[in-house]
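Project standup — Tuesday

K.O.: blocked on the structure for the chain from last sprint. Re-posting the sequence here as requested.
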Amino acid sequence: MVGHKLGEFAPTRTFRAHGGAGSRAAAAAAGAAGKT
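H.V.: unblocked you, prediction finished:
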């Protein structure tokens, strides 16, 4: 949640917490969606 403001750091931390399957594209998409 803290990284949510950063946007770029948020996705990395989120996707990692979810399991970290190695989906960088998914993390980027989630970050873009969250930022918007």
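K.O.: great, moving the ticket to review. The mean pLDDT is 55. Residues 1-36 form one domain.
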